Amino acid sequence: MNISRSLRIVSSVLVLLLSACATTNNEWSPSADTKRDPRAAKAPRVDLSKQSVSSLMAPSNNLWMHIRQGFQLPELDSPLVQQQTRWLAARPDYVDRSMMRSSRYLFYIVEEVNRRNMPSELALLPFVESAFNPEAKSTAKAMGIWQFMPKTGKDFKLTQNIFRDERRDVLQSTNAALDYLQRLYNQFGDWQLALAAYNWGEGNVAKAIKRNQAQRKPTDYLSLTMPRETREYVPKLMAYKNIVMDPAAYGIVLPEVENHPYFVAIDVTRDIDVEVAAQLAEMSLADFRNLNPAFNKPVILGATDQQMLLPFARAELFQMNLASYTKPLSSWTALTVTKSETPEQLATRLALNPQVIRDVNNIPRGMRIRAGSTVLIPKPPGKDSDIPVHLAEHGQLQLDKAAPPKPKTSKPAQANASNKPSSTGKSASTQQKSPSTNTTKSAKTGSNTGSGVSAAVKTSP
User: Fold this and answer.
1) Which of 54, 65, 40 is nearest to 173 (CA)?
2) What is the tens place of the pLDDT at every residue in 189-200?
3) Is 129 a catalytic residue?
4) Which of 121, 129, 202, 232 is catalytic?
């Protein structure tokens, strides 16, 4: 095998299979009937029981150098670029934290960008969107390192249910974001306008272009009238490009990021608790969640095409520990509530702790579970089956306000023995305060004017 082909193989995400229950014989083996998501199945399969991950690693090389070689975007002649660059240079600790976070995901993103022949500046866009925080959530409910809004996430088939939110999934959200950016570039024929549309919405950019055309004005990025956030969006990206291109000029030290895959993607074919998966990989729960932020619940389901990511160094540990693990892989199951009831009523019916039901399903007090909802509960003794596919794919939790408890009826006050009128001339029984009027403040609902993605981390000066 020549060197270039070898590098192409190791630069892909390696996909492995978790096939059998831990109480039997656990091996990494392909499963012909396991569903595959085409967005996550581009890489060659590797069976860890036959091949070592360490033997597949590419020679260590500096990823930053590789990124610089792929820069293609034209320089933006705007004072905002220098302003944003100075802002970053004045905050080396902030830059260092976001750069360190990026080291987990950047190789995969760069490889996907290169595979599509896109400018490598686009791999830096999560710095602008989320500072590479996979748990980032904006006030407009945009999620993940690419900050997908709920509707845009659905448009790009990113699953959002009670078990997982693929807007936070590193593989799925990256592929969806690059699909979106490519579509925007095809629409506008200009990467700066495509980036503006990613932030502001393609409809808004198209309208701004039409307004300029009607006034016979230029229609490039700098000539359009747009909100401040969008006006500063491309300059922020160019500021990160400046830092990566010449960090020493700005007093920044980039962390070492090696030019090979950081993680291995593992297809999950049996339910497994998040804590168990982290334990078998000998990782802290926090480190495991950093690579697997899409899971909303403490269990990863095997009924759907889900994957978990593990660092290269942990994948073989996981395999070895899984083979000797004799306890149940999962301690959770799910059910559909057939009638509206409170967590306390459900817990009484199933002989469970109501607080556990509240905590794992994020049910606030004073709320009732609506009929038809899917609820996660501890697995009963002796139950070994996994959560079925129809619940894993379509499970939703809907809540209603619980009816207030009926007030206790108070005993009527005894009449005054002398039946003497009060000093005000009114009988004591009629001296009552009128109830106060409670006013309810209406909640503001922000409107999204076509924006598909919203930045969660502001880096404006």
Assistant:
1) 40
2) 999 999 999 999
3) yes
4) 129
